[in-house]
Backbone:
C-alpha cells in the first residue's frame, strides 16, 4: 500500500515521503495514529504543492544547522562523575548530561538528537557523541568523563 508520511517515522522515511508499506501496518498503525495518509492522486498533488512552498524554508533551516555544526566541531566537553577507586562510574553518563554540558557552554541542543558512540559510558575516559542537527547535518563531538 502506498502512503504519504505526515511526520518523520524512524526506519521508514521523513515527512512528505511517499513510501510503500504492508497494508496492515498502514491501516492498523500509521493511519490511525495520524502518521500517514493513503497516497491518492489528490493527496499527492497537495503534498507536491506543500513541498514547493517549504523548499526555501528547509534551505534556511539547513543553513542554520550547518553554521551550528561548524561552531560545535571544536567543542570539547568535560563531564564530572562520581567514581570508584578503579575508575568505574557509579551509574553511567548519558545524553541528558551531555545536553546539560552543552547548555552550560551556550548550545541549546535537544537531548533526543544526541547519540553516544557506545551503548553505555561507565568508565573514566574520552568518548564521542553524534549530534543530529538536521536530517542531513550531523556533527561528532568529543567529551571526557573525569572523576569528581
Residues:
Amino acid at each position: 500500500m502506498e502512503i504519504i508520511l505526515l511526520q518523520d517515522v524512524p526506519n521508514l522515511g521523513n515527512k512528505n515521503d511517499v513510501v510503500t508499506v504492508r497494508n496492515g501496518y498502514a491501516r492498523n498503525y500509521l493511519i490511525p495514529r495520524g502518521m500517514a495518509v493513503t497516497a491518492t492522486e489528490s493527496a499527492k498533488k497537495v503534498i507536491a504543492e506543500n513541498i514547493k512552498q517549504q523548499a526555501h524554508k528547509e534551505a534556511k533551516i539547513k543553513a542554520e544547522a550547518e553554521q551550528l555544526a561548524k561552531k560545535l566541531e571544536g567543542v570539547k566537553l568535560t563531564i564530572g562523575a562520581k567514581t570508584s577507586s578503579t575508575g568505574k562510574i557509579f551509574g553511567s553518563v548519558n545524553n541528558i548530561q551531555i545536553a546539560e554540558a552543552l547548555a552550560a557552554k551556550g548550545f541549546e541542543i535537544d537531548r533526543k538528537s544526541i547519540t553516544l558512540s557506545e551503548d553505555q559510558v561507565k568508565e573514566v575516559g574520552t568518548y564521542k557523541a553524534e549530534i543530529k542537527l538536521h536530517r542531513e547535518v550531523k556533527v561528532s563531538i568529543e567529551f571526557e568523563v573525569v572523576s569528581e
Observations:
- The chain has a mean pLDDT of 90.
- The chain has two domains: 2-60, 70-147.
